[in-house]
C-alpha cells in the first residue's frame, strides 16, 4: 500500500471558509454521519480539519465573523465574477464570538496582545 502524502493547496480565504464549514458540520450540527455515510472518509476529513485549525490564525481573532464573511464574499466574487448573495440568509457578521470560537474556548482575547 502506497502511503505517500498528498499536498492540497488552498488560498487563505478558501482554507478559512472550509475550516468554518467543516467545524459547523462536524461539531455544531453533528451531521457528519448524515452527509458522509462511509466512515472511512471521516479520517481524511478530520485530518484536513485539524490541519486547517493549526494553520489558521483567523479562527482565534476577535473579529472572526466579519473576517469570515469578507473571505466568503471574495470567494463568491472570484467564482461568480461579482459579489453575490450570502448562501446563509440572516447570517451574523458582527464582532460577536462565533460558535467556532466559543467551542474552542478562544472567544474574546485571542489575537490581542498581552503586553502593556
SSE order and pairing:
Elements: H1 12-28, H2 32-35, H3 42-55, H4 64-80, H5 99-104
Could you explain the architecture of this structure?
The protein is mostly helical and 116 residues long. It contains 5 helices and no strands. The termini are far apart. Residues 86-97 and 104-116 have low confidence and may be disordered.
Rough outline: globular
Structural class: mainly alpha
How would you name the oligomeric state of the polypeptide chains in this document?
single chain
Distance between the termini: 55 Å
Work out the radius of gyration. 16 Å
Q: What key phrases describe this protein's structure?
A:
disordered C terminus, mainly alpha, 116 residues
Brief summary:
The chain is mainly α.
